[in-house]
Amino acid sequence: MATSTVPALKKNLLASLVALPGFTGVQLSYGAPLPNPAREYVWLGDVEGDDVPAALGRNRHAETYNLTVIIQAVKPGTDQEGATERAYAFRDLIDTQIRSDITVGGALGSGWAYVAGHFKLEELASDTQRGALLTIEVACEART
Q1: How far is CA 54 from CA 60, 86, 110, 141, 144, in A?
Q2: Mutual orientation of helices 80-100 and 6-18 as an angle, nearest 10°?
Q3: Phi, psi for residue 14 in degrees, rounded to 5
Q4: Domains in the chain, please, with CATH?
Q5: Residue-wise pLDDT tens digits, 103-122
Q6: What CA–CA distance (Å, rounded) separates 143 from 110?
Q7: Which residues fall within 8 angstroms of residue 79, CB to CB, at 6 or more apart?
Q8: How far is 77 from 105, CA to CA, in rounded Å?
Q9: CA 7 to CA 15: how far, in whole Å?
Q10: pLDDT at 58
Q11: What CA–CA distance (Å, rounded) separates 48 from 45?
Q12: pLDDT tens digits, residue range 27-49?
């Protein structure tokens, strides 16, 4: 039995996002979208949390952690609002997907996930394009 749910959580979340029509043409990535990041991507990034025994002597775990998700949307021209709205539309798709399957395909055992916690929006600009880089957290509680 795996000692952490993190790999399964990332794998299952990625698979569920790939299946959504709202992400057609968007680069979805388990790790850093390198070497060629697309203009629009969703990156399932770093994880920070805690793991404690859930039952002594039974190799059971109770994990609480946050998965950092980085969303980028870049649009040609000067439409900053459009780029920002596009990034938030991706965030809303992720939130809706997780709300519809709070165990993320069973990865969290009897636990749950939700989009919550710290977020950061960075609006980017050049002479030819506008971008939004939105960092969100998926909070997870796993009971395995």
Answers
A1: 5, 40, 12, 12, 8
A2: 120
A3: -60, -45
A4: 6-143 (3.30.2000.30)
A5: 999 999 989 999 998 999 99
A6: 5
A7: 130
A8: 39
A9: 12
A10: 61
A11: 10
A12: 999 999 999 999 999 999 999 99
Give the total residue count for the chain. Answer: 144
With contact defined as beta carbons under 8 Å apart, do 84 and 98 qualify? no
Residue 77 CA to residue 60 CA, distance in Å, equals: 53
Q: At which residue do the structure tokens 């793991």 appear?
A: 51
Token output for 98:
């997780």
One digit per residue, pLDDT tens: the chain, 144 residues? 457 999 999 999 999 999 999 999 999 999 999 999 999 999 999 999 998 876 655 666 789 999 999 999 999 999 999 999 999 999 999 999 999 999 999 999 989 999 998 999 999 999 999 999 999 999 999 987
Q: Using an 8 Å Cβ cutoff, are 130 and 124 in contact?
A: yes
